[in-house]
Write a structure and sequence with these properties.
By secondary structure, the protein is of the alpha+beta class. It contains 17 helices and six strands.
Length: 337
């Protein structure tokens, strides 16, 4: 089964999990072992990291704290709405619980979940499902606990009151002490179940939310779309092509050169990119646009110099391309940054 999460994600979750480890007596080196992350990186207020680094960190916590049966629940309590950035503000500004749920699931890739979350209705009961099929077996209990309780925290902060659950089902075996689970979910879960899910009254979905703001939710959704695109920048063959194009600013390698580097024929490269829903020319455009925005925002270069760095022989060609991307000239864009 392919991973239901993007290859890159916000560093915030890494920071929360590292703090959990420190609070439970681990050292920073124990938390970050083999993650490829340095303590300096943890001080950043934003930025992306590889999802595999977070999975390694989770493995480190589990290996170092084997006696903490509710480790995932302890982690889940730390994921508040404010930790999710634009995603959190978007659902917080939704008109109803249903709209919040639909928007939240649509941009599921911006959460910190590793389970594949879905919502389905069964007559009068709504079930929030947490599919753990793509998870490494050793990490499943922790991640399911974290993702489920993290969702509970979000819903509580969204509604302003705790979510009253009708049922809680977990695939994991029952621990010796179930009291942390009762405290987390308000009842004893059914352990050893066929799936992981939380059941609640379906009519809750039509409840209005107190902070509804149509203008804000629209603005936040646009930001969510941009963030999700950025997180998916490195995925698949298209991601490898983007990285190679970024390595040759000023030249912007042609398809034949990129195909040769990837040990493919240009025809095979074209076909495989088409299978991923894109084309080499579209990727060239994406990379040029991203570099153009970065160079314009940075200042210090004339438009002619930026055009040259992006591989345009004439300034007019760069201006025409930029107007196609952004709807305004690069000069006007630069004055507005």
């Amino acid at each position: 089964m392919s991973a239901p999460w993007p290859a890159r994600r916000s560093i915030i979750s890494i920071q929360l999990l590292t703090q959990l480890g420190l609070d439970l007596g681990l050292s920073l080196d124990e938390c970050l072992h083999a993650t490829g992350l340095s303590p300096v990186q943890l001080t950043r207020l934003n930025g992306d990291v590889e999802a595999r680094s977070e999975l390694r960190l989770i493995a480190n916590l589990i290996e170092a704290l084997p006696a903490v049966a509710d480790l995932g629940l302890q982690a889940g309590r730390r994921y508040h709405l404010t930790t999710y950035g634009a995603w959190g503000y978007a659902i917080l500004s939704s008109a109803t619980v249903r709209q919040a749920a639909e928007l939240g699931l649509r941009y599921h890739g911006l959460t910190y979940a590793f389970t594949d979350i879905s919502l389905n209705l069964d007559k009068t009961v709504a079930n929030l499902n947490f599919d753990d099929g793509a998870l490494p077996p050793a990490l499943r209990d922790f991640i399911v606990q974290r993702d489920m309780l993290g969702a509970m925290v979000v819903v509580r902060e969204l509604l302003g009151t705790p979510l009253r659950l009708l049922s809680v089902e977990l695939r994991q075996t029952a621990p010796e002490d179930v009291s942390p689970f009762i405290a987390a979910f308000g009842q004893v879960p059914r352990f050893g179940a066929a799936r992981n899910r939380l059941g609640f009254a379906a009519d809750l979905l039509d409840n209005p939310l107190p902070r509804a703001n149509p203008q804000l939710v629209s603005a936040c959704e646009q930001q969510c779309q941009a963030l999700l695109t950025r997180h998916q920048w490195h995925l698949g063959l298209a991601g490898r092509v983007r990285q190679l194009l970024l390595q040759s600013p000023g030249q912007i390698a042609d398809m034949e050169r990129i195909a040769e580097h990837l040990h493919l024929s240009s025809r095979t490269l074209r076909r495989r990119l088409l299978d991923e829903g894109t084309s080499f020319r579209a990727l060239q455009d994406e990379v040029r646009q991203a570099l153009a925005e970065e160079l314009l925002a940075g200042g210090g270069l004339s438009l002619e110099e930026i055009a040259e760095r992006l591989g345009y022989g004439e300034l007019s060609n760069f201006i025409h391309a930029f107007k196609r991307w952004k709807g305004i000239t690069p000069g006007r864009y630069q004055r507005g940054t």
